[in-house]
Amino acid sequence: MAYIDYYKVLGINKDATEKDIKNAYRKLARKYHPDINPDDAEANKKFQEINEANEVLSDAVKRKKYDQYGENWQHADAYEQAGQQGNRSYSGYSGGGQQGGYNFESFGDGDDFSDFFQSMFGNMGGAGNGRQARYRGQDYNATLSLSLADASATHKQTLAVNGKNIRITIPAGVENGQTIKIPGHGGPGTNGGPPGDLYITFNLADNPQFKRSGNDLYTTVPLDLYKAVLGGEITIETLNGRVKVKIPPETQNGTRIKLKGKGFPVYKKDNESGDLYVTYELRLPTGLSEREKELFTELAKARSKTDENVK
User: Fold this and answer.
1) Which of 34, 112, 152, 195 has a CA that sits 20 to 30 A from residue 42's CA?
2) Cα–chain-centroid distance for residue 217?
């Protein structure tokens, strides 16, 4: 068989990091998986090459041997032993044949894919030379919509995946657009291969009452004229209940206060939350009675005299 350049198969450079290899493999495996391309022989062939390349390059020891010996990397130990005994170098040797008393056959036996790949995924054929590779199941991707209130508390939720109901725990504090992995709940494997994983991306709906910035929340609450002038107490809604807040006399419109620890919970950190910032919006009374108008008139005159005395 022709030499397969594993780096080229994954579309990466020879100095690629482990993360680069993993990302490249995931992207290509999803694209060429047999479940997505059930009747595409070329995609099936590509998928097997991708798996073979990943199995070698994702293993530091195998990758080192592959970089040194290429397609014959599996015979690296024999090469090195032969070199020590006969002071010969077999680096770069390819193809079958006899050399120095050692018989090294080429990597593969004329099938579409190497013996290494077949041995890695198992020879599951019956009589004759039939072989069936084991394939990992397809990863599933799903989007789960949550309200801000739902996302603020740890809770369980049941999802229907591939005809089965699975119950998952959603931690408090998940971010909008955050993705979590549920291992083993993707598509079933082929020929005894392991199942894929389920990736859930959270979509947090906008909340008309609270605006979120990181783990802090912002809200605006109405404040009537009388409490703003004279002081008093009001009840403020938070994500996890109501709290009573004292209003100092002569509170101005637009005044902002902070309720510590009443914001959005920090992801996977128990009893830790951001803050809630409350802005007061002064509401003037409407539909005044004649008596109320008289009182406001008297108040205005009294205020005018006070201002004159100050001058």
Assistant:
1) 195
2) 23
